[in-house]
Design brief:
Layout lengths: L7 H13 L4 H18 L2 H17 L3 H17 L3 H17 L3 H17 L3 H17 L3 H16 L7 H18 L3 H15 L5 H17 L3 H11 L9 H17 L3 H18 L2 H18 L2 H58 L9 H18 L3 E8 L2 H8 L1 H18 L5 E7 L2 E7 L3 H16 L16 E8 L7 H18 L4 E4 L3
Parallel strand pairs: 4-5
Antiparallel strand pairs: 1-3, 1-4, 2-3
Helix pairs in contact: 1-2, 2-3, 3-4, 3-5, 4-5, 4-16, 5-6, 5-7, 6-7, 7-8, 7-9, 8-9, 9-10, 9-11, 10-11, 11-12, 11-13, 13-14, 13-15, 14-15, 15-16, 18-19, 19-20
């Protein structure tokens, strides 16, 4: 998205967001506020979408789910309307992750599919990879392992075609963990181990701390299932170093939760409680009720097994209270989503209406109002493309200028209304010829018209121009004031050559005009063809 047209102050804010996102949350949010305030004053949808998106992304990293949801929901119509499709797909992806962690899998899938649609439509390969990974993870969570593998393999294929992206090793690790989990849940441990070995071999030395933790969680569970106690303990030691509540809980929760289940099953109580308390604190700070319920589920299972009835009953009571809160939260979220959907539909309707109006205006700006054929502006655009192609391919071009013989006398004696009708009937015959491939026509002004023939032989051009002359003569429009013929006729000058750096559209036009003048001096109603040389 090009922002170069903005003032230096706005460009400085935008650059500040790019530099500080993910590293300095406070500064990023301050800069986003500056952009948002300015954008509101200017009613600038592009900047509003940008500012709301990066605010939402920052709150995602801060685990502030309410502000995340609010900002990203606000960003969607602005991003859609200003056609910032990359940020739009990313916004849908974060909203999907948030919905999944709030226990709303159908909403999550809906968001993911929206994001995937934009990725496919606009060839957003980098975000498309992570969308496919996340859909695969979602299917894994619900036991649809074959579907999970399908999306994860699509992500892998797409990643191998785009190895230059900065997130290559991070995405590859997530794919291997996803495919490994799919095998793990089906008790295909040897195949799961193969994915773990591939991840180690390719990704080691390229991973951030969070990614190392996610892999250690997976490998610990796999080693435990395969009875590899020493390797399991080694990975447990890596995970137990986690103590930073500032890590993005939405990115790591599922990995840590599955890992906690393994600790509970293997009766590693000290490690279990340390991590459960950390997750509980993070979930409370993030105000994610569904996560708090899932953590309570682990505690309830523990209390029941240990026959700690008082703690068990307290936890069950809290679980019930959270269920009621979650039900209210889901109703609120549904209302927000419906409002957002309505806003997006209105935005799409408005955008389509505007695009239609713009298309009409563009057609009007490029079409001659009287005849309906292209005008001089459209001629210049088309000629540039034709000559660039002809120079590159060394193919011939013919440029014809024609006008109506003694048209001033026709207009003065028959009246302007009849004069306009005459021009329209001539234009219609010219347009019929231009329906052929690689022939273009335009009204040049007054009673003058231009045709461009691309790739035709000289003989073919002569035949076509003769045919055009006869078709206009056959209209039998009486012209008693013509000194050429009794009926409306045309004179034609044609420049035929192979364009190069010294023979451009300007040169062709000048030569065709000279040839037309020659015809009018020597033989009105005739044709003269020559080259630029």
């Amino acid at each position: 998205m090009d922002f170069n047209a903005y003032s230096s102050e706005v460009l400085e804010w935008l650059e500040g967001v790019r530099k500080n996102r993910g590293t300095d949350a406070e500064k990023t949010l301050m800069l986003c506020k500056n952009i948002r305030d300015y954008a509101r004053e200017q009613d600038d949808e592009k900047l509003l979408g940008y500012a709301y998106y990066y605010s939402g992304e920052t709150y995602y990293l801060l685990n502030d789910v309410d502000k995340l949801f609010c900002n990203l929901s606000c960003s969607l119509p602005y991003l859609e309307h200003s056609r910032q499709h990359g940020l739009l797909a990313r916004a849908y992806n974060i909203l999907a992750i948030t919905s999944m962690n709030r226990g709303n899998a159908p909403f999550a899938m809906d968001y993911y599919l929206n994001a995937r649609m934009y990725c496919e439509k606009y060839k957003l390969y980098d975000i498309g990879i992570i969308i496919n990974i996340n859909i695969g993870m979602l299917y894994n969570n619900f036991g649809e392992y074959r579907q999970a593998e399908k999306y994860l393999e699509q992500a892998y294929d797409l990643l191998q075609k785009n190895k230059e992206i900065p997130e290559y090793y991070s995405y590859l690790l997530n794919i291997y963990i996803g495919l490994g989990n799919s095998c793990f849940y089906q008790e295909e441990y040897m195949q799961a181990q193969e994915y773990a070995l591939r991840a180690k071999e390719v990704c080691s030395g390229h991973l951030e701390e969070l990614e190392q933790i996610a892999f250690a969680c997976f490998e610990a569970r796999l080693c435990n299932a395969m009875g590899k106690k020493e390797e399991c303990d080694r990975n447990i030691a890596i995970v137990q170093k986690v103590s930073d509540t500032r890590m993005p809980i939405l990115d790591i929760f599922d990995d840590l939760y599955a890992y906690c289940e393994m600790l509970l099953d293997t009766r590693k109580e000290e490690e279990f409680w340390k991590l459960v308390e950390l997750l509980e604190k993070m979930a409370r700070e993030a105000k994610i009720i569904y996560m708090q319920k899932r953590i309570l589920t682990l505690k309830i299972r523990y209390y029941k097994r240990q026959e700690k009835n008082r703690e068990y009953l307290q936890a069950c009571g809290l679980f019930f209270e959270l269920s009621e809160i979650l039900e209210k939260e889901n109703k609120y979220i549904m209302t927000c989503i419906l409002d957002m959907r309505y806003t997006l539909e209105e935005t799409n309707h408005s955008r389509k209406k505007m695009e239609k109006e713009n298309r009409i205006l563009l057609e009007q700006s490029q079409t001659d109002a009287l005849t309906g054929i292209p005008n001089r502006y459209r001629l210049e655009q088309h000629a540039q493309k034709v000559f660039e192609h002809a120079i590159a391919e060394k193919i011939p071009v013919a440029v014809e200028i024609l006008d109506i013989d003694y048209f001033k006398q026709y207009n003065d004696n028959y009246g302007h209304q009849k004069g306009d009708l005459c021009i329209c009937r001539v234009a219609k015959e010219i347009q019929k010829l231009a329906e052929k491939d690689d022939i273009f026509c335009a009204r040049y002004g007054g009673d003058e018209f231009i045709l461009i023939y691309e790739g035709y032989s000289r003989e073919a051009v002569v035949i076509l121009t003769e045919k055009l002359k006869r078709s206009i003569r056959d209209l039998n429009m009486e012209h008693a004031f013509s000194e050429a013929q009794r009926y409306v006729s045309i004179s034609q000058g044609i420049c035929y050559d192979i364009p190069d750096a010294d023979r451009t559209m300007k040169n062709f036009l000048q030569k065709a005009d000279d040839l037309l003048y020659q015809v009018k001096e020597e033989n009105r109603g005739g044709i003269c063809i020559g080259s630029c040389r």
